[in-house]
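Researcher: I need the complex structure. Ligand is zinc ion. Inputs:
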Amino acid sequence: MQELLAFQLFVPNYRYGEVVPLDPTCLFCKIIEGEIPADIVFRNENVVAFNDIAPQAPTHVLIIPTLHVENGAELAKASPTITAELFKVAEQLSNEGGLGGYRTVFNTGAEAGQSVFHAHMHLLGGRALAWPPG
Ligand code: 5GP
Ligand code: ZN
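Model: Output:
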């Protein structure tokens, strides 16, 4: 209970009026908490963005909600506001980085390549991006 209160103090995540704790076993929750270091490029109460450890383009940022939900669809159900905020942060980072264009991607499910089951938007840019993706 002590631990849950600490989460609530630092990361107020509201879902239908209830506080949603972070998942202490989740890699991205640990990054939110600072328990695992990351190159953080944006942070507010609802969103954290950090450079991907294995970048697939000159700009490859992961933009995540500060609540633990499995994927983008679950995030949309939990908080349309924070879902929209991820897109706003992507636009802001693109503008700050002077990108001529960018791609935002949510991999949902292992078959689509999802390997971390905390919702995250990939922001990719800084080079010409092929279509269709692999
Ligand atoms: P997914 O495959 O789930 O769509 O994306 C997960 C992303 O997280 C991958 O692009 C992977 O490189 C990145 N990633 C995995 N572990 C770490 C880490 O410890 N730090 C950072 N910054 N990125 C990570
Ligand atoms: Zn998490």
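Model: Summary of the prediction. The first helix runs from residue 2 to 10.
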